[in-house]
Amino acid sequence: MQLTLWTYEGPPHIGAMRVATAMKDVHYVLHAPQGDTYADLLFTMIERLPRRPPVTYTTFQARDLGGDTAQLFQNAVSEAYERYQPNAVLVGASCTAELIQDDPGGLAQALHLPVPVVPLDLPAYQRKENWGAAETLYHLVRRVVAPTQQREARAGRPARCNILGPTALGFRHRDDLREITGLLEEMGVEISVVMPWQASVKDLERLPEADFNVVLYPEIAMTTALWLERQCDQPLTRCIPIGVAGTRDFIREVATLAGLDVSAQLERHDHASWYARSVDSNYLTGKRVFVFGDATHAVAAARVAAREMGFEVVGLGTYSREFAREVREAAKQYGVEALITDDYLEVERRITELQPELILGTQMERHIAKRHGIPCAVISAPVHVQDFPARYAPQMGFEGANVLFDTWVHPLMMGLEEHLLGMFREDFEFHASAAPSHLGSARQEAPAVAPSWTPEPEQISIATASGNAPGQASGGWAPEAEKELGKIPFFVRGKARRNTERYAQERGLTLITVETLYDAKAHYSR
Amino acid sequence: MSTVIPLHPVNAQGDCGDLDLHTERGQRAVFCGLTGIIWLHRKIQDAFFLVVGSRTCAHLIQSAAGVMIFAEPRFGTAIIDERDLAGLADANDELDRVVSELLSRRQDIKLLFLVGSCPSEVIKLDLSRAAQRLTRLHHPAVRVLNYSGSGIETTFTQGEDACLASLVPELPTQDDTRQRLMVVGSLADVVEDQMRGLFKAIGIDEVDFFPPRRSTELPAIGPGTRFLLAQPFLADTTRALQARGAEHIPALFPLGVEGTTQWLQAAATAWGIPPQRVLEATQAPRQRAEQALSRHRALLSDRSVFFFPDSQLEVPLARFLHRELGMRLTEVGTPYLHRQHLASELALLPSGTRVTEGQHVDPQLDRCKQAAPDLVVCGLGLANPLEAEGFTTKWAIELVFTPIQGYEQAGDLAGLFSRPLNRRLKLVA
Lengths: 526, 429
Prior knowledge:
Chain A is of the alpha/beta class. Chain A has 22 helices and 13 strands. In chain A, helix 14 links the parallel strand 9 and strand 10. In chain A, helix 8 packs across helix 18 and helix 21 packs across helix 22. Chain A is globular. Chain B is 43% helix and 17% strand. In chain B, helix 7 runs parallel beside helix 9. Chain B is globular, with a radius of gyration of 22 Å. Chains A and B meet through strand 1, helix 2, helix 3, helix 4 and helix 5 of A and helix 2, strand 4, helix 3, helix 4 and helix 5 of B.
């Protein structure tokens, strides 16, 4: 049993729903009690899809448990098939139905529907959302695709690929797909099947016709891509086209797989890399950044942060346990220890310890950041209504790199503003809680209750019992030192306080004076 | 799956409205009782709600509530994992450990609810014994109670019913037979304060609200206690209160001018206060409410409305929309129809109104599209898909999360229904 106040991923059947909802003509019959239908609102309220997810819930009740829940399930499958006429039916159980062991797969097979029936065995007490999506895609493909090592000879036709991974409720999947599709087409690569986003079951049958697979989201598509590699002799891409360098690596990898010359694409001009080199970006140098998200986005963001923004990565972590190895490898490059956890309180503790100057995280880290007064940009799922912007805002490709530059710099003080703040600390307009001027009134107090689908709902409600809020004095500050500390800009004040206290503690100083403060500053800025 | 029940509801007067009553079974698009935690934890400010359930339960509550907004919310989930199921870990020991962990971090908690879920019910984890054990362990700092918010037993607002019913045995006993009024069901603080003022003006001074804002302020109960329901979904709580000797005062629910007046009148009558005094005491707020309603009547009058089942507030809301705003009722869906508590409400619906208890969502959507109402009141899963098809919708959940009871809120309540229609008029693209 684990005490959970908030979770980064939903249960695995939500992953299955993301696949079913992305596709055109599959229907998912979920053996589940009333209440589990809440999942519909993820799609209709957060993603704002204009249609209901193609999911039928059996909605069994306590009084059914003594009776025939199996019959209830079969009726639900028959009715759903009659009404929606899907070309494939996914069947499975949510956590409660898993306990009553009705065997949805067997029951659905017994109906002899004229379309493929794919049983999904997604253990709800062990696994989570992304894994559920990956398994669903894999079982669907295995059921529909006939393995073959043969395909049409390459001579005289363009290279052909599939794009694997974009789902419903994906973090910027819609825009990433458009960006990468454009990039591939520009290179002269033909796109055969995109899966699962808006794919039909018939489309899946054509998967083996492609020369290789582009894996956009390994958490969702890697299992399937590896199977296709073995069964259909299709190589796959492993570079993630996030950031300018990531996109260039991806282009080179695709070029190798497709046998193309791509120098023109590599030369393509983006704004982000020039802006990063422009003199006014100097102030970004060495900003201490903490990165947390799903494995793919976290690793890519750390790379962009270090190599394309000139930040210092002081922490890197993920909630994707399945990809812990990849994240640990990446963390080594920055000389940090990866944080692998799905407990946001642990993430908050690490952030408190590190006092970064910028957090690149999920919506949860955004809230942690607000409580601690640290700038933050969101780089990864879990998704929020804000992650479905009306405008085009990919994370991938060259345009994605531009979006990252803008999004990450936006929450920071602008360069000159930061300098002025350093110089005129006691200026009345630069009071302790002054926010970056371009963010206006972003840091005022606001009402406590707002549903997650409301745009920009929350504001800070003060960390109540966490007991680890930054800047809690351990005592021993001389009044002048405390005053001097107050002159330090708020976004580094927490770090200065912690460092000074640690410095004093290590030297057994009982009173922290102005001298101690500056000694500590000198000590830590070696 | 739909059966027509030729039932004529018996109302308080003994005659019956000629309603078209149906009961349906099938897929429901309604929350389970766990969702009640979203408002209950705000109402009882020193209580913590610990769901004993699965990752789905945790995900449901955070999706429905947007819990990211709280620094550390006063609810959480003890997620059952495979070790608990396989018997590798004793689920009771695990629960004790989780509760100790929680309480050591949250010293401010005085009342802990263990909230049963579908999985905990199915594996028959005995939370009432766990609650007793944990109360012994953590007494007197913390009291531990339990109730079920599971989807196999409760629908949405029934979670509040189960929660309040579990609190009733904790109410201290009032020994004397002095008559006291208790208002039962969560109301917004502002509404409570208004009601208290109105009761005082009428001449009823001793009024308790249940649930209280703090668990240390539980109202006393005894043979002199008479109670009004502020919410229509409190069947179990009513029975528990009656079992402790309290007497229910049947009334309309305090929605709209008519409902609020009749609700206050019912209490006044029980106190032997003449109706005229109620009318005098409420004249100013009634007039304000009438005025506020008239602004919305222009937009709502003669428009048709279709209710999908959601909170059990549907019947009183339909009565209000029909009688005070002149709307036409196409179908009134409700997850559960408490015929006794709603008797006088049902009697005020126009004859022939289709009232559907339960749900089979696909055929109900067919009926809705067939009826082509001007306004659809429905849950969050259905609203945007219907909007995309050209329907105008009102999220039902807002009716639960907004102060809508009483005179001062009557205009706001009407506004919740007129705003979507008004908005549609404004948008050109």
